[in-house]
Amino acid sequence: MRCTIFNIYAPIMSTRSPGLRYTAQGLGDRIHLVSLSYEISKEKGESVGLHLATNHLDGRKKSSFIEILSLFPKDSVELHFHDYFASSEVDWKNYLIRLGVEAHSFAYRDHPGWLEMKNDFDISPYLLHRHLITPSCSHELNLPEKFITAQWDSTGQDRLLPQMEITRIENEYQKEGYEIVHVGGQSRKEILRECLSCAAVAIYKSNFFAGVDSGFLHLALQVKNISQIHFYTERDRYWSHHSFRAIEMGAILNHHSGKLGHFDFLFVKFRYDSPKLIKIVHRIKRLVGIERYEAHD
């Protein structure tokens, strides 16, 4: 068993929504935190301790983190749950220091949040080349011989595609001979709604995964060859650093949907990666009363 000698801690505040706490609200947030811990572990050859405060653990999140961890090889990541509500990043770090834990903060310097604070290291290089895992489950899934897995629902409304567009996209896959197996909340199979390891196996065995920026995109990035991931969005819809990174890794953008031209992509990237411009835009939005933030980014 490897000893935990490298500790990281989940952030307390959002880097893109002023005054909003980061609570690991979505499944994708939780999968991502465990995934990045695993990638650090693989690169360093050491176990990684992921420290989580009460801020990150309301409702069923603690059991969700444990379920996600079960997908990964043993002894690579350890979860540390703290019965402590942190009021700020400084408060959280000082609490860990008082416990004698030398834990590190991290940031995504390839696509930094416009509210990014000083941090200990850049996590983005660890995320560009994934060490894929092979999921398993004890259930009989009865999967088709030729199929794609898909997830179109998301807790963020700006990430969703119109239903007519989803139907059109799925029809294109069906014309190519693929059956559609939905995972997550829209699945007709309870086992693929409720059992994360079952959904992971389905994604792993599928010919392709198709979906929006959601929890199961994070899962697909950890279990599938990147060229087998089809990511869908539109220029003027929600983009995250996860969206950009998936494309940069080699995920196929809008395989059966409207293609984004070179200048479309440059526009989106400029919009996201220009902190000074973003601050001005958000100030204007607040002044006219149309500011809106996602609750878990």
Structural class: alpha/beta
The total domain count is 2
From the N-terminal CA to the C-terminal CA, the straight-line distance is: 34 Å
Number of strands: 11
Q: Give the amount of beta strand, in percent.
A: 5-15%
Structure description:
The chain is 38% helix and 14% strand. It is α/β, with parallel strands linked by helices and 297 residues long. It has 2 domains: 4-127, Rossmann fold (3-Layer(aba) Sandwich); 147-260, Rossmann fold (3-Layer(aba) Sandwich). The strands form 3 sheets. It has a 5-stranded parallel β-sheet with strand order 8-7-9-10-11, sandwiched between helices. It is globular, with a radius of gyration of 19 Å. The mean pLDDT is 91.
Write the layout of secondary structure elements.
Elements: E1 4-9, H1 27-44, E2 47-52, H2 61-69, E3 77-81, H3 89-98, E4 103-104, E5 106-107, E6 121-122, H4 124-127, E7 147-151, H5 163-175, E8 179-182, H6 190-194, H7 196-205, E9 208-211, H8 215-223, E10 229-231, H9 241-249, E11 252-253, H10 262-272, H11 275-288
Parallel strand pairs: 1-2, 1-4, 2-3, 5-6, 7-8, 7-9, 9-10, 10-11
Helix pairs in contact: 1-2, 1-8
Summarize the structure.
The chain is α/β, with parallel strands linked by helices and 297 residues long. Helices cover 38% and strands 14% of the residues. It has helices at residues 27-44, 61-69, 89-98, 124-127, 163-175, 190-194, 196-205, 215-223, 241-249, 262-272, 275-288; strands at 4-9, 47-52, 77-81, 103-104, 106-107, 121-122, 147-151, 179-182, 208-211, 229-231, 252-253.
